[in-house]
Structures are given as structure tokens and as C-alpha cells.
């Protein structure tokens, strides 16, 4: 995109933006939480809606001049309800962590017990992990996955729930490569009279596109970011059944936030419109097809994958057998133009800032039009990159970088000017 005003007013920042545009164009982005948004979503985030304050909700504002803002937010709400089959939608949370915090405010008191997936096992900080405010203000109890399968043991979840009697049970996470069994979690939540919260931040686009089962009608409350697989702006939503709607809205405003970011709300509306199209369903299914093909190729090259593969967009690789720490591999792959993140794996003996694994995903490359036929090449690059990281072979990384740049140039990314 052209940025004449920024270039004129702040050339230093303009250079950084242009550099980032080029970097996103040239590299193979495999971080599963990242994606490319459409030009329409980008345009919506830069509109004059930025200029408005709109504390409250449509028809119940504390500011005048909302004649156009109310319809924008209503549009986003109605589209969210339609795409996800929800009774209620709140599109005001600023991001995923504040959305989860609003759920705590709505349904728990400080000191109450919450049950969530352990962070090292694939959960999220805001599911009651100790370093998070949710773990400091509430009593977090964690479930994990089994060593043998890398899958959730529902007998363990049930036993913990019966023993600890949590107010909230979270399912979902940031490094969960398998289908989330919402029905099984719901059965346990009902037994202990807990509110079941499905955090679908990573898989919202897959749910919207029918490539992953829906959390409804099993979950009482659903939280999600609006970026990642959903290909919207950096924002969040809370979806719920009607019986939990009032508590959710009150927790978001005035409980945690002031005025919503109206330009983000508009971009969410655009993204939800895009997600309602048949093309998006094809996209969501292609994400999964690509991830499964990539996982199979990596397995064929001797990589150890947590749970043995994937059902969704995400692959978690344990590099212990490759004799390369995850951080070393991630940084080497970055120099090769392959962008991943280092990540803990279940039962990781290494520290979180220097873990054994890397986490990869296929949303971004799928947005560029890559399909299963390209996954052998991607797997080969990862294999060569990891070997080069172990050997300290910078020339090999440079050769991969050139090959990556050549392929990316043939598959332009949505929303990018280069």
C-alpha cells in the first residue's frame, strides 16, 4: 500500500512499514496465529471510525453522534451470530486476553477455582496459569495430555473437576493440534455445575468454515480473537447463549473497558462477511488439508510430532531427536526465510525460553494459494533448515532463503502491495 502521509510526516516509520511489507511478502510465514488480512479489512482499520468514542452498546450509548456507529456494531454482531450460530455476540473486547478476563469478571469471584489446560501442555496464559493475572487472582488448576498419545485424558479432567469444583472450565489453547471434544468437556462441566468456556481463538476460522466442529451448543461461552484463522483485524469477540449474555456484556462494559475501537469493529464486520462466503469454506478446509499433508511429509523425514500429527491448522514439533533446541532451530529457520516460533512441548525438560520444540501452522501459506502439492517442498526446507541449524551452516540457510523468496514471489499475499 502507498503511505504518502506517513512518508511525509514520519519517514523513519514509513521505512519500517515498507520493510515489514517486504518481509511479509518474501518469507514463508508458518506461525499458526498469524495470517494475511484482505485489503478490505486493512482499509476498514484505517477509516474515520477511529475518531469516534462510543461507550455503551448500540441504542444505549453515553455519547451522542452514534447514528453510523450503532449500525456498524450491529452489523458485526449479527454477522458473528450468523457465522457461528450463537444466540449472542459481543464484538467489543480489545483482544483475546481481555475477552477471557471479561469471562472471569462475569462468572467468577477472586479466589474461585478455574480449570484449564496447562500452558506447557498447549493451553493459554489466561486459562489460570500462574504468571497471568488469571492465575494470581483466581485459583488455577490444570489438566494436561498423556505422554503416550499427546491427547487430553478426559478421565483426568473429570477427576480434577469433581475434586476441585471449578467455577469455570476452559477448553482450547495455543498449541493444540487435535480436534477439541466440546461435548466431552460440556458433560464434565454440567456434572460439576461449572461454566464451560471454549477458547477458539486459534480455530475460529476453521469453525466458521466448517473445518472444525462448532463449540455450540456445548459451550456456555465462547471466546475468540478475530485474527488468526478468521483473517480479521487484531480484536476479539465473546459469543454465548442467551442466558449468559447479560453477564458478558456487563463484564466487557463497564466492567473492563471504556469505548470500543470502532475502526476494529468495522474490520471485524468485513472479516465476518468474508467468512460467510463459500470461498472461505474452501479456504478453511484447505488450511487443514495443507497442515495434514505437511505433517505427513515431516513424519516421513523423521520428525517427532506431538500427538503424531494434526487435525487442524497447527503442527507441534519436538526436536529432541534432531539434537537441536527449538530456539536455535527457530532462529536459523528465520534466517532462511521460514518464520516459526519456538515452543514448549508436553513434558518438556527444557525451560520455556529455550524449549525443545517449534510450532508451525498453515493459515498464512494457504492465504497465498499454496496447496498440498507444495507441502513436500516446505517440509524439505524445514528439514534442511534444522540440519543447517545443527551444523551451523549459514550458506545452506542462505540457499533456502533464495528458494523461499522465489516461491513466494509466485504466490502474492492478500493485502500486500509487493
TrEMBL record:
What role does it play? Catalyzes the reversible interconversion of serine and glycine with tetrahydrofolate (THF) serving as the one-carbon carrier. This reaction serves as the major source of one-carbon groups required for the biosynthesis of purines, thymidylate, methionine, and other important biomolecules. Also exhibits THF-independent aldolase activity toward beta-hydroxyamino acids, producing glycine and aldehydes, via a retro-aldol mechanism. Thus, is able to catalyze the cleavage of L-allo-threonine.
Q: Where is the Serine hydroxymethyltransferase-like domain?
A: 7-382
Pfam families in the record: SHMT (PF00464)
Question: So, what pathway does this thing act in?
Answer: One-carbon metabolism; tetrahydrofolate interconversion; Amino-acid biosynthesis; glycine biosynthesis; glycine from L-serine: step 1/1
Q: Which cofactor does it need?
A: pyridoxal 5'-phosphate
Q: How does it assemble?
A: Homodimer.
The opening ranks of the lineage are: Bacteria, Bacillati, Actinomycetota, Actinomycetes, Kitasatosporales
What does the record give as the reaction this protein catalyses? (6R)-5,10-methylene-5,6,7,8-tetrahydrofolate + glycine + H2O = (6S)-5,6,7,8-tetrahydrofolate + L-serine
Q: Which PROSITE patterns match?
A: SHMT (PS00096)
Binding-site list for (6S)-5,6,7,8-tetrahydrofolate: 119, 123-125, 242
Q: In its UniProt entry, what is this protein called? A: Serine hydroxymethyltransferase
Keywords annotated in UniProt: Amino-acid biosynthesis, Cytoplasm, One-carbon metabolism, Pyridoxal phosphate, Transferase
Listed GO biological process terms: glycine biosynthetic process from serine; tetrahydrofolate interconversion
Per UniProt, subcellular location reads as: Cytoplasm
Site Plays an important role in substrate specificity: which residues?
227
What's its EC? 2.1.2.1
Which positions bear N6-(pyridoxal phosphate)lysine? 228
The protein's matches in SUPFAM superfamilies, at most eight in alphabetical order, are given as: PLP-dependent transferases (SSF53383)
Q: What would be an example GO MF term here? A: pyridoxal phosphate binding
Q: Which family does it belong to?
A: Belongs to the SHMT family.
The record's HAMAP family line, in alphabetical order, gives: SHMT
Q: What class of enzyme is it?
A: transferase
Q: Which GO terms describe its cellular component?
A: cytosol
